[in-house]
Amino acid sequence: MIKGISASSGIAIAKALVLKEEDNEVIKKDVTQYEAENERFKEAVEKGKKQLKSTINSTMEKLGEEKAKIFEAHLFMLDDPEFVGAISSKILAEKVNAEYALKTTSEELASMFEALDNDYMRERAADIRDVSNRITRILKGEENPSIGDIKEECIIIAKDLTPSDTAQIDKKKVLGFATEIGGVTSHSAIIARSIGIPAVLGIGKEINTIKENDLLILDGDNGIVIVNPDDETLNNYKGKMLKDWEFKKNLIQYKEAESITLDNRKVEVAANIGSVTDALNAINNGAEGIGLFRTEFLYMSKDELPSEKEQFNAYKEVLEKLKGKPVIIRTLDIGGDKKLPYLPIEQELNPFLGYRAIRLCLDRKDIFKTQLRALLRASVYGNLKIMFPMISNLQELREAKAVLEECKEELRKEKIDFNDKVEVGIMIEIPSAAIISDVLAKEVDFFSIGTNDLIQYTIAVDRMNEKVSYLYDFFNPAVLRLINMVIDNAHKEGKYVGMCGEMAGKTELIPLLLGMGLDEFSMSVSSVLKARGTIRNLKYEDCRKLVPKAMKLGTSMEIKKFLKDSVK
Ligand code: PEP
Ligand code: MG
């Protein structure tokens, strides 16, 4: 049995598909059989072309023509006699290994493109490196299957999965995944929960003991992976899967019900989404609204910045699907562990403390304004609320609101319709914002507490680092005190407060959050009905009494125990 972090609940049983770690390190070697080396290179190019053709077809089918074009450009490069010829010449003239000739030639070319004063050309540098890495992997015999092309049921084992890897997952084939790094709130975990497949993350180096085709039990509830289980364990787990299924079936009774306590305190249980498809899934699973639309996933699924029109269409579709229910759309939160290949950010020592979210948007007003204009234009199609992420001070909020005003002014001049009264809120996910939430509350319509980041910044614990994941704790008294303070400060100004971090769906904490007065709980779609069931079985007055007592406790363990003993 291998232990990791429980990142998405549920159980899966299937064979392991082990993704090899990408190693693009290349060592120069002198070769005497340089003709044969050149042949080896040409064969790798042919194999690369075959792979690309198949990827183009499947991408076209699943993700559309535009995405397929990226791979068409890669294929074009491998068909280019100048590019391939330059590498062959190097192998033959310098008598070096193919990997080295490929890497150095591609790097020279990529650096040349990067130096050009043209965004489009600069982005081609990434394509050259991509193609070069593909051929290097073939030469080294280290190819991975494309996740979108997986044909048989499996559990993916990998060092890490990028958001674009997870975006390709077909849950009928990929029954779950386990990774070496990452934690409860890394984005691969968030996506696993939104698709509804189990995931165990942050396993560490022990993950390397799992071999291709090992039979695995992935237990997302307990954060464990069992490799080649005996018959008894296998049968036990099959029994558990059946019980899980029955439990889920039982939750359906809450689908149309209100999120209301036994003594009539009504709150909202909403869903976090990352795409238009997720919105439909949210409604089908009983969400009363969207508490967080992570728009960066819209940007990640493209190979260039989405235009105003594309964004407008996506936001409009979500708003229309929600039929007047509240939809909080968060402006772009790129940076940290979320990257856009076409918008390179300089390497940073601390990306989570760096050029991220609103900081990037206030710096790149062109990107920010395109999104705000799209949002404003969509605002007439439903109950839209705009939310700014990573606000750390009042000045940033004012600047962001000023850009929004600028966009409104432009639309007025262009005689384009929008809702002038669209609500504007901020995420409280940085301790500095929580501490001055009294002043921030005066200048917003709502707050949404982003506990995923609030925890990492309050406790100074990287949400991605499994070595310190023991500190990443939903019950941390300092974090809970900040949350309590934020809710009080917002209510004093008559503003409502939601929570869209993963904590909102934690059953054990719902009584305390309810007692603090939280108005809206937004979570992964798969947790919505369970949370509603919990709320409907609680008394608000009892929950309120928990707060002063819990706030006096000094450790997470004490708070956890107190809640367990007090709430039956
Ligand atoms: C959060 O930080 O709690 C949050 C919801 O945002 P994200 O997880 O996208 O950083
Ligand atoms: Mg966040």
UniProtKB/TrEMBL annotation:
Cofactor or coenzyme needed: Mg(2+)
Domain PEP-utilising enzyme C-terminal: 252-539
Residue positions binding Mg(2+): 429, 453
Pfam families in the cross-refs: PEP-utilisers_N, PEP-utilizers, PEP-utilizers_C
Main localisation: cytoplasm
Record: active site: 187, 500
Binding site for phosphoenolpyruvate: 294, 330, 452-453, 463
Domain Phosphotransferase system enzyme I N-terminal residue range list: 3-124
Gene Ontology, cellular component aspect: cytoplasm
A single BP term in Gene Ontology: phosphoenolpyruvate-dependent sugar phosphotransferase system
PEP-utilising enzyme mobile domain residues: 150-223
Keywords per UniProt: Coiled coil, Cytoplasm, Kinase, Magnesium, Metal-binding, Phosphotransferase system, Pyruvate, Sugar transport, Transferase, Transport
Record-stated family: Belongs to the PEP-utilizing enzyme family.
Described purpose of this protein according to its UniProt entry: General (non sugar-specific) component of the phosphoenolpyruvate-dependent sugar phosphotransferase system (sugar PTS). This major carbohydrate active-transport system catalyzes the phosphorylation of incoming sugar substrates concomitantly with their translocation across the cell membrane. Enzyme I transfers the phosphoryl group from phosphoenolpyruvate (PEP) to the phosphoryl carrier protein (HPr).
UniProt-recorded name of the protein: Phosphoenolpyruvate-protein phosphotransferase
Organism expressing this protein natively: Clostridium liquoris
Gene: ptsI
